[in-house]
Specification:
The chain is an alpha+beta fold. Helix content is 31%, strand content 21%. The chain has two domains: 37 residues, no CATH class; 90 residues, Alpha-Beta Plaits (2-Layer Sandwich), CATH 3.30.70.920. The longest helix is centred in the N-terminal third of the chain and has 13 residues.
């Protein structure tokens, strides 16, 4: 794996200068390396990891299992790409197992997410069925723990 990409994925956000210092390279070399990663479509951009419990606006997220009918010339790709383009869809993956696609969907309310699934997603030609799982609490997001463990002195220690 590219060493610049590895540093970005493994640690805290680093500036170009910090990456250059760690890798013993010039800032120009790092900028050129990042530009090459972007040009190849490997590095798509910087995204912050946000703890949803710490922000004011409520967001409802759901994992949707989707069974679809593959198309003769496009297989799963054409329909999967149509689904992925919806604004409500954060991520969309081709899966093995009991369903074909998994989509992570978000909205401002449970009603908005449910309406998207029932009116727009499940009615698409080629969508055979959906199963919805609403996310209740996130414990880890993109490698970052969101819930810190603490020892509660009022609870006895459990031993085996």
């Amino acid at each position: 794996m590219n060493e610049i990409l590895k540093l970005i994925l493994d640690g805290e956000p680093l500036s170009i200068g910090q990456i250059a210092e760690i890798l013993h390279r010039t800032e120009a070399e790092i900028e050129a390396g990042l530009a090459a990663l972007k040009e190849k479509g490997i590095f798509l951009g910087w995204r912050p990891v946000i703890d949803p419990t710490k922000i004011d606006s409520e967001v409802v997220r759901a994992v949707i299992e989707i069974r679809i009918r593959p198309e003769r010339d496009g297989g799963f790709d054409r329909l999967a790409l149509r689904i992925a383009r919806f604004q409500e869809v954060e991520s969309c993956y081709l899966m093995s197992g009991g369903y074909d696609l998994m989509a992570i969907v978000s909205g401002h309310s449970l009603h908005q997410v449910a309406r998207f699934i029932s009116e727009r997603l499940s009615t698409m030609d080629g969508v055979l069925s959906t199963a919805t799982h609403f996310l209740l609490r996130a414990y880890k997001e993109q490698g970052f723990e969101l819930v810190k463990t603490s020892h509660d002195p009022d609870k006895p220690t459990v031993s085996a």
